[in-house]
Specification:
The chain has about 550 residues and is α+β, with helices and mostly antiparallel strands. Among the domains are: about 90 residues, no CATH class; about 120 residues, no CATH class; about 70 residues, Tetratricopeptide repeat domain (Serine Threonine Protein Phosphatase 5, Tetratricopeptide repeat, Alpha Horseshoe). About 50% of the residues lie in helices and about 10% in strands. It has 24 helices and 10 strands. The strands form 4 sheets. Strands 1-2-3-6 form a 4-stranded antiparallel sheet, covered by helices on one side. The longest helix is centred in the C-terminal third of the chain and has 19 residues.
Length: about 550
């Protein structure tokens, strides 16, 4: 059959997706792809329907340009009419090894890039320019993201604590091996005699349990590279693990978005500024966004420049621009700007949040503002008004975890324990149902519920929630972060009250060590920990 698009993207093993130019300034990714395994057309991976998706050629993310850059070899450019031009079709040698002309003249190691010389972290960034790194993932529970192997590998202990990289298991010059025995042999190189808590059938493969296959639609599956121990019903995140920030190494591949800078000289200053911001080029982004704000006077340009100044800690300039944007004719820009100003000026927070609500019609944004407005009223000892806004927010979004937990805290403090417990349990259920990783939000809700149950004398269940909060925060922040102090104190005091003196002493000593390290030996936190240990500082 004929191709439904001008270009076909993909190696042809899993799916082939079609792309066409759509007018002078847009490209469209077609909504139907071809799946060789079924020999049939079906919804394109990541799409909700067959309608396709349109992208501006010079949008702030460089979406269409990056597609062509990663699926071709050599520099990408724009023709005079705005059409994307590439050097060589397909992924060839120079996609990974860089320009090879000098190497053909002088074939020594110094004249070519050899990715095998990179560390695992460097190689992860190098391959991640196309396959994506942790910095590119915003929803770790979204099954479609399982295709981003470097991002998920970076969360694995095998990557963090050993020397596992893409090249540990895969050969860059051969087709991907599909035999489970091949990968079992790789696992056995480090784990010769693994110990399992439950019996494992002799025919089982390591990867079938520790790297589950994730279905992204009816026709496509990807192997999850976040190596770990999984609940079979939740194939995206290992049990008890949370996402960790992975610092970039600075190593960039020939397909890096940095290579698109020259093309963006043709873009509008606003698009160019946002693209440079995505690259981390703060100076270039400020220059371009300032030009956009000065020449176009679009409220969105003011808002974007204000956000950038805020990120750069140039608070005075940020505030002045947010004030201009808040008084603009665009109601949603105005609403977002009033909300930011509320955080910058706590004394006027309730006034500014009120203006934000009056401007916006977007449900999710309104829920967030109502929650923040309720918290502001609580800070001003006006729980009656806070309760009103919490209830309005829940009427719009009954399962909003932040609102449920914050309202639960208000009800707990006012003695309405039964309703508070119901809300905190609902918040916990929503979080545990999500397929993504455990987050600091889960630790907060677990702490709130533990406190409430403790106040009711339900010590055994309260201990369960305090232990969960500690485990989550340890995974999110690391073993000695100050965030763990409250977790350890809660757990230690409840253990002490429950008569488990030995474990209580161990936990409270950990709390004391963190307090002395981060707050100082004479701090209130350190004194509290020593007091409950029953010891005095010499």
């Amino acid at each position: 059959m004929g191709s439904p698009g001008e270009w076909a993207f993909g190696a042809g093993n899993k799916a082939i997706t079609y792309v066409s130019r759509d007018g002078a300034q847009h490209y469209i990714e077609h909504g139907l792809s071809y799946y060789p395994g079924r020999k049939a057309m079906d919804i394109t991976p990541g799409h909700e329907n067959a309608g396709g998706r349109k992208y501006r050629t010079l949008d702030p993310s460089g979406t269409a340009l990056r597609c062509f850059r990663c699926h071709t070899t050599g520099p990408v450019s724009l023709a005079a009419d705005g059409a994307i031009r590439w050097t060589e079709a397909g992924v060839q040698c120079e996609s990974c090894h860089g320009p090879g002309a000098e190497h053909t003249r002088k074939p020594i190691a110094a004249t070519i890039v050899n990715p095998r010389r990179f560390s695992p972290a460097q190689l992860n960034d190098y391959c991640g320019d196309c396959h994506r790194t942790a910095a590119d993932i915003t929803d770790w529970g979204l099954s479609w993201n399982a295709r981003h192997e470097p991002a998920f590998l970076s969360q694995s202990r095998c990557f963090e604590e050993a020397t596992v990289s893409c090249l540990t298991c895969h050969s860059a010059h051969q087709s991907v091996e599909t035999s489970q025995k091949h990968y079992d042999a790789k696992c056995s190189g480090c784990h010769a005699n693994p110990k399992h808590r439950t019996p494992v059938p002799a025919a089982s493969a390591c990867v079938s349990c520790h790297m589950p296959s994730v279905p992204t639609n009816a026709s496509l599956r990807f192997t999850n590279h976040w190596i770990g121990v999984y609940d079979k019903t939740r194939p995206m995140t290992p049990i008890g693990r949370s996402v960790k920030v992975v610092p970039r190494t600075g190593v960039r591949s020939p397909a890096s978005p940095d290579g698109l800078r020259t093309i963006y000289q043709r873009a509008h200053a606003s698009d160019r500024g946002m693209f440079l911001r995505s690259l981390g080029d703060a100076a270039g982004a400020v220059e371009a966004l300032s030009e956009a704000a000065r020449t176009r006077r679009d409220p969105a340009d003011l808002e974007n420049l204000a956000k950038l100044f805020g990120e750069l800690r140039r608070d005075g300039e940020a505030k002045a621009l947010f004030q201009q944007a808040a008084r603009s004719a665009d109601p949603e820009v105005a609403a977002r700007s009033w909300s930011v100003l509320a955080a910058m000026e706590p004394a006027r927070a309730r006034e500014y949040y009120g203006r934000a609500l009056a401007s916006s019609k977007l449900k999710d944004f309104r829920v967030t503002v109502m929650n923040n407005l309720a918290l502001s009223h609580r800070e001003n000892k006006d729980d009656r008004s806070a309760e009103s806004f919490f209830r309005q927010a829940l009427a719009l979004d009954p399962d909003n975890v932040g609102v449920l937990s914050n309202f639960g805290s208000l009800l707990h403090s006012s003695g309405r324990i039964a309703e508070a417990e119901r809300l905190e349990r609902q918040a916990l259920a929503v979080l545990l149902k999500r397929s993504g990783p455990r987050t600091a939000e889960l630790a907060t809700v677990s702490t709130n519920l533990g406190d409430l149950l403790w106040s009711r004398g339900q010590r055994v269940e309260a201990l369960t929630h305090f232990r969960r909060a500690l485990a989550v925060d340890q995974s999110v922040y690391g073993p000695n972060h100050p965030e763990l102090f409250i977790d350890l104190m809660n757990l230690g005091l409840l253990l002490k009250e429950s008569g488990t003196a030995g474990e209580a002493q161990t936990v409270l000593r950990q709390a004391l060590a963190i307090a002395e390290q981060h707050y100082g030996p004479q701090s209130q936190e350190a004194r509290l920990a020593r007091e409950n240990l029953g010891s005095r500082r010499p």
